[in-house]
Amino acid sequence: MDLLEAGRFLPLMEDFYSLQGEGFHTGKAAYFLRIGGCDVGCNFCDIKESWNKDTHPLTAVTDIVQRVLESGAKTVVVTGGEPCLYNLEYLCILLKQRELEVSIETSGSEKLSGNWDWICFSPKKNTQIEEKFYQIANELKVIIQNESDFFWAEENAQKVHQKCLLYLQPEWSCKNVITPLIVNYILQNPKWRLSLQTHKYIHIP
User: Fold this and answer.
1) What are phi and psi of 3, to 5 degrees?
2) Residue 144's domain spans which residues?
């Protein structure tokens, strides 16, 4: 097994300390690790440069954890790309040893590795989804690009466990058109909550 397969190195696209902009933890300080490589390739993705893992340097997990510690962060969010393409056990072990809270944002297209305090599950259409995520996700976040996506949201809401929080998030490029529709939908279906990409409104990473 090579060092990538063992989870000792990861193709790190970027890392930064900021505020969580979406979902349940909106406004919370966190250190973000964006892992390169994606097997989904959403047409509305605003970070398409993350898709090709070969364009991002393999970085030692020990070095990544050291940067997290130097930031003073108490929470780490692992995102992508699709972070579940990789073995994340070692990363989680090192972060947990330092008593940090660890979260992951995933489409659920790959099996999960690692021990997580919070799982944000954002399934995409026309993608094979690991069914386990419906049982373990803390929040279901569905991106709404058009009205047909409400049906997709409900299909997924029927599969998650009762304690999973449900979020609808407007796709950024059509937010002015779709957000009012989401608001009206939530008023009629109050099990859902609204998620906004607040980091883009206040111009932070």
Assistant:
1) -70, -25
2) 9-201
